[in-house]
Amino acid sequence: MKRFEIKTLILTMIVLCIVFVPAVSAQENSMVNNKPSDLQQELINALNSKAKSSSIDNVVANYCTVNKDKILKNGFGSNNTTYQLKDGSKIAFIKNGIFIDSLTIEANNKTTQPVSKENNIVSASLVNPAYTSTIKYGVTRYNYLGWALFTVYTQGYFGYDYTNVAPHFVNGWYTKYLAFNPWTVSNWAAGGDMYGSKTAEVYSKGNFHFGVVIEGNQIDIQDIYLKPYIRCNQYGSYWTGYDS
Question: Are 205 and 187 a contacting pair, CB within 8 Å?
Fold first, then answer.
């Protein structure tokens, strides 16, 4: 095959893949008021009724296999549509993919503020602080074929005294799926910080992307930014969400 023909073939493949690139948007992971489409409701029902022995990944994969023609034609629906599932997790539909989050709460027996390098961000001196539970929050990205691509996790807890709050980052990591996973990660960061004067957060974030190299130039076919976070106010009330 001639050099020109190879370039044309590659560029055609890129254009086709770009059709499935999600729109970049900030998302607070809040509920929406609009009713799910029939296609969306079908997956919501399947996840809500799944047996304990069934994994979320298998339910999503089976759903996408059964509905592959509809999904290829119209995608999953409008961007930024998020719905609560029966188990407390949330599912968000974007044009060419799905996000599903998870939350795990563990008892926290901390009575003093930690001093390790990973937990050294204290916004203010707390007086007789109380501590939240240790919270682990993860977000998984699925593509239009129903394959789990990667999950990003953040874990931490918060000290608070009803006047101030301090974040205590425990861990942040990601898991990539699929054999020969093509996704690379850049701009990875994880930690704790203040989010406003009376709100603290722990987070993990990074860009997940893959592409091709043409004449020495990297061309990204997909670039997905994902930042799951846990935030807490000075009263010890915490919530989760993510930016994508």
Answer: yes
Q: How far is CA 44 from CA 48, 92, 242, in A?
A: 6, 10, 20
- The count of residues in the chain is 244
Nearest to 180 by CA among 205, 143, 155, 210: 210
Return the axis-axis angle of helices 38-48 and 56-66, rounded to nearest 10°: 150
Query: How confident is the model over 144-175, as pLDDT tens digits?
Result: 999 999 999 999 999 999 999 999 999 999 99
DSSP per-residue letters across 213-234: EETTEEEEEEEEEEEEEEEEET
- E runs forming strands in the chain: 81-84, 90-94, 97-106, 130-131, 134-143, 148-160, 165-176, 184-194, 199-214, 217-233, 238-243
Q: Is 55 exposed, middle or buried (0-12, 13-18, 19+ CB in 10 A)?
A: exposed
